[in-house]
User: Fold ENTH domain-containing protein from Turnera subulata.
Amino acid sequence: MSGGGTQSSLRKVLGSLKDTTTVSLAKVNSDYKELDIAIVRATNHVERPAKEKHIRTIFAAISATRPRADVAYCIHALARRLSRTHNWAVALKTLIVIHRALREVDPTFHEELINYGRSRTHMLNMSHFKDDSSPHAWDYSAWVRTYALYLEERLECFRVLKYDVETERPRTKDLDTAELLEQLPALQQLLFRVLACQPEGASVHNFVIHLALTLVAMESIKIYQAISDGTANLADKFFEMQRSDALRGLEIYRRACQQAERLSEFYEICKSMDIGRGEKFFKIEQPPASFLQTMEDYVRDAGRTSPARKSQVDNKDAPKEILAIEDKKEPEVKEERPPSPPPAEPVKAEAPVVEPPDLLGLDDPSPIATELDEKNALALAIVPVADQPSTTFSSQANGTTGWELALVTAPSSNENAAAASKLAGGLDKLTLDSLYDDAIRRSSQPESHILSIFCPVKISSHLREIICNIMAITNAYVMKQHQLTNAWLSLVLCDNEITSLTYIDFLC
Assistant:
């Protein structure tokens, strides 16, 4: 034991000599004498916290009112102090100065540190630092490396958030989805570095380490508040996210639950070590595990039924949108009802044009040429006059009415005139005259007028000329039949038998 104590005392003496020599050199060779002396004395080999006056001198040199060259020189001097030392006390006290500068100096110091790390090797990269002077120094060196990682992550978090979470109010409560998914992982990584700063071994009883751990523990409160606000905001937006964002959000929420449990254990250790005097740490409330299960089910279902993803959460919003659409449709229907009758008129006009019209008038209910031929054929038959009364009686018995039959069956006192007017087949001259007069009347009308009646559809001039020619031929045929019939009737009036034979010869 005496040998170990002698070696430790010897190292302290050598450390004191190094600090004195460095101060003497700074007084002679340095352009920033006061700053160099303050840095050496604030980061000496003495295993006690630095004096406040030396720290204030350093802060004055890196304030926003000083030229940027002075700030850059101070950062370079601190980085050189870290890179050249192998003593845990010098390294830890230098890190404490940098940490306090991040907390107490304006944000421009953050930016200068970030810019310095981009141009050179990062000054806080102490992954290879070790002090093997004693077994306790190994434990101290391990904690110094962890503390350097926390400060490095603190700078990275400032770069992502664009503000210092310790000195400013957390803004995660009002962020949108994209910013939440970017900033919450940075805050959770910073909290992970806080939890890693839990001292172990001999570092639990070191006073300088307690001082640095107090700074870390106090900042963890603000970090956790920012994460809690961001997690609550994330939970509100979770069921509106795309599946890829929902997966990231689920991982963030799951990690927040795990870190909340570990942070409670960390605070219990800090209370047992009398870090922060215990009254400033609050009780961590665990997020509900049921909500985590709901989020996992949602992500699982969103992968299978992605189109119906929002129906689980937007049930309150969807009815409002539907009602708004219905309210807009009602006045539109009322406005459309008045102009609805006019479109019905062209439907009525187009209804008769369903079937093609009879251009030649072959379907006309009036007697046509074929019917006249049939009746004329009947007229050629020689029928005795005695059969005529029976025919007339049969027509009366059938209840046939009409001015044509009335003329045929009308009683007459002149038996000879009635017999003379009777023709074969039960017809008389008046009936035939009425039929032929109707045909003459139709034939006298111009073809264009008849065509317009039977063919309301618009046709070409060439087709119209063809139809008119056909109708002219038909009319000529009807006129010829009428002339033949009149000639025949003139003969019948003289003598029925002689007329019939004469008509046959005429036709032959």
